[in-house]
Amino acid sequence: MTTALITGSTAGIGAAFARRLAADGHDLVLVARDIVRLREQATELHDRHGIEAEVLSADLADDKGIEAVAERLGDRKNPVDLLINNAGFGNKGRYLDVSMADELRMIKVHCEAVLRLTSAAAEAMRERGRGGVVNVASVAAFVPRGTYGASKAWVVQFTQGAAKDLAGSGVRLMALCPGFVRTEFHERAGMGTGSIPNWMWLDADKVAEAGLADLARGKSVSIPDPRYKALMGAAKLVPRGMLGGITSRTGRKYGPQ
After folding, report:
1. Has residue 206 been placed in a domain?
2. What CATH number is associated with residue 192?
């Protein structure tokens, strides 16, 4: 039986991945900050699907948290076969309205943690000749939209480059780039969602399902919905200055975790 480690597992896309992978018979390592929610999630998934679910409380904005997860990913006796780097958050406000501390925390979670955890997992996976990593990014990676979009653009570029370097090793890497997903994300960030049209909202379970299917197909980038694929295709034809104005009216963030 294979094991998947999911960061940000207790809500949104992370929870959707946990449900889908548990239903498919995978054991899990569930990572988030709230130990109470982690234990409740682990118990529910174990009771419903009969899988084993470890819990690991870790804050990926903190070096100790990153190190704890990296150590688990590097455990050769209890290997992790699939890593879902899903932890993330958004900041409410435009550039210079957000504190520097919050901007740097975002880069820590979205970039440094993704780099370190992907590296820890991929090194162990390469030794075994098999494994997969899904780094949850966003369609915000493809539009000019502040630190959030820039950090997700980094995730996409890093993942594509790492996937190319590991080609033929048996280790697959993919950046998952959803649009707006109905999760707790906007509420936690204090963002309103009234200006977002209904057609732009995605279901977290369908996003997870599409992401796993695209990973199995060997894709290095996945935009898990035809509507957003079309939208991102059209975005290539729109001047970047105009696109930045459009995205500023629909909120600071696309594709919540």
Report:
1. yes
2. 3.40.50.720
Measure the N-to-C terminal CA separation of the chain; round to a whole number of Å: 27
Domain containing 233 equals 3-248
Amino acid at site 153: A
In a domain, 176, yes or no: yes
Whole-angstrom distance, CA of residue 127 vs CA of residue 71: 16
Name every residue whose Cβ is closer than 8 Å to that of residue 81 and which is 6 or more positions away in sequence: 2, 3, 4, 26, 125, 130, 131, 132
- What is the tens place of the pLDDT at every residue in 136-170? 999 999 988 799 999 999 999 999 999 999 999 99
Tell me how many degrees the CA angle 190-58-66 measures, rounded to the nearest 5: 105
Give Dmax (Cα) for the chain. 52
Helix axes 63-73 and 113-128, enclosed angle (nearest 10): 10
Count of structural domains, the chain: 1
Are 118 and 154 spatial neighbours (Cβ–Cβ below 8 Å)?
no
- Asked if residue 255 belongs to a domain, the reply is no
pTM of the complete model beyond 0.70? yes
Q: Which residues are catalytic?
A: 148
| 206 HSE (CA, 13 A, CB side) | 12
pLDDT at 146: 92
